[in-house]
Specification:
Elements lengths: L3 H25 L4 H23 L7 H27 L2 H7 L3 H13 L5 H18 L6 H27 L4 H22 L12 H25 L5 H7 L2 H14 L7 H29 L1
Helix pairs in contact: 1-9, 1-11, 2-3, 2-8, 2-9, 3-4, 3-7, 3-8, 4-7, 4-11, 5-6, 5-7, 5-10, 6-12, 7-10
């Protein structure tokens, strides 16, 4: 029998693998990043809403709590927008590799939000991720704006991970409802952006059959399920461990992108060496975390 820690680690890796696949879907979908994320969140909102109706897990929250959930939803909406925009102006491999800096951002932000001391090895491992990233992009300078956009996405991802960790510790049995409000907040925010920007037009959403297929997969399998699952996982794993494991997203996503797009996603040997450094960093974090837990039990 697998213990709860291993089960949560395995589920987290499944979620991260699915997130890696979202980058491939983003490249396959022909529309721009803003309408793409809006449709993605609308589909996810409908699925989570239907799930809540059938499971009857709804409970009321105060306006202040709902506003907090909406704020988290805006952060994830901005993360997804910058993520897909980076894919559009660079490529899948570049964007996913940049997300690895999320662990470094988390190692800096988490001690402040959780009022705990800085753990030296977390900063050290975050520095190794930066080293891997520097090695990657010392030979990929043509993607400068894509890199900046993807790094912004990584910072937003780290911030969202920490916000959700605090929420799930405060509301441990309400992950699905929190997900619903977060996605709803993101949908309302993006709708406001589209309306204010004057770019909301029904004609813009007359898409091909393949686009709608990829969008449905993106909104359901790649959004609704991992969104809820990741919240549950955060009840048992620290935000830093979650964020560092998310560093495997570039590995999974790049492999999938090379399989789907072939030469378009082929990068330099230094790129893959940097990816290997990131992978080894994830494994090192798991080792240090398990060692620390064993010592606590002694």
């Amino acid at each position: 029998m697998l213990n709860d820690n291993i089960k949560n680690q395995l589920q987290l890796h499944l979620v991260v693998f699915i997130w890696g696949f979202t980058a491939v879907l983003g490249a396959l979908i022909s529309i721009g990043a803003l309408p793409l994320v809006f449709i993605r969140m609308v589909i996810a909102l409908a699925i989570v809403g239907i799930y809540l109706i059938f499971t009857k897990k709804y409970r009321s929250f105060s306006l202040k709590e709902i506003a907090l959930f909406f704020g988290a939803g805006i952060v994830i909406a901005l993360h997804w927008f910058t993520f897909f925009h980076a894919i559009k102006i660079a490529n899948v491999s570049v964007t996913l590799a940049c997300l690895s800096t999320g662990a470094f951002f988390t190692s800096l932000l988490e001690p402040y939000f959780f009022k705990r001391p800085v753990i030296k090895y977390e900063v050290f491992l975050g520095g190794l991720v930066i080293l891997g990233l520097a090695l990657i992009f010392s030979f990929e300078t043509q993607y400068f704006y894509g890199i900046l956009t993807a790094l912004t996405s990584a910072l937003l991802s780290a911030s969202f991970s920490i916000i959700n960790a605090k929420l799930i510790h405060k509301y441990p049995n309400d992950s699905v409802i929190i997900s619903f409000y977060e996605i709803l907040g993101g949908v309302l925010f993006l709708l406001a952006v589209l309306l204010i920007g004057g770019s909301f037009s029904l004609s813009a959403y007359v898409l091909s059959g393949s686009d709608w297929l990829w969008l449905f997969l993106l909104g359901s399998v790649c959004t609704a399920y991992p969104f809820i699952a990741s919240l549950n996982i955060m009840r048992y794993l620290s935000p830093y461990t979650v964020m560092l494991t998310i560093n495997l997203e570039p590995i999974y996503g790049i492999l999938l992108a090379v399989m789907v797009f072939g030469e378009k996603e082929s990068m330099t040997p230094q790129f893959y060496l940097g990816g290997l450094i990131i992978l080894l960093t994830v494994l090192a974090n798991g080792y240090f975390k398990n060692t620390a837990k064993r010592r606590q039990k002694i």
